[in-house]
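Hi R.,

Here's the chain you asked about this morning:
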Amino acid sequence: MVKNHRLAKSISDASWSEFSRKLEYKMADHGGILVKVPVTYPSSQRCSCCGRQEHMVKDLSVRRWRCPACGTEHDRDVNAAINILSKGLEMLAS
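And here is the predicted structure, written out as C-alpha cells:
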C-alpha cells in the first residue's frame, strides 16, 4: 500500500480518520447514525449463523470456510459484513 514503511501506519491512520470524519458529517447531514464497531471485533472469524468463533480463519488466504458447529459455508467478506451489521445494531440497541 505505502512504500515508506516508517510512514505507512500514520498515513493509513490519517486516511481512515478522514474517511470516518466524512462519514460522520454525511450521517449528521442526512439524519443518520454512524456506529463504529470495535477494531478488535472478530467479524470474519465468527459464524454469522451460530456465533461460533473459528480461529483458523485468521489466515487471510482462507477466503471460504465451513463452520464446524453448524456446517454453514461462508465467504469471508460476506460473513464479516453480516457480523458487522449485527454488532452495530446490537451496539445501537444498548
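One quick note: Strands lie at 64-66, 73-75.

Cheers,
M.
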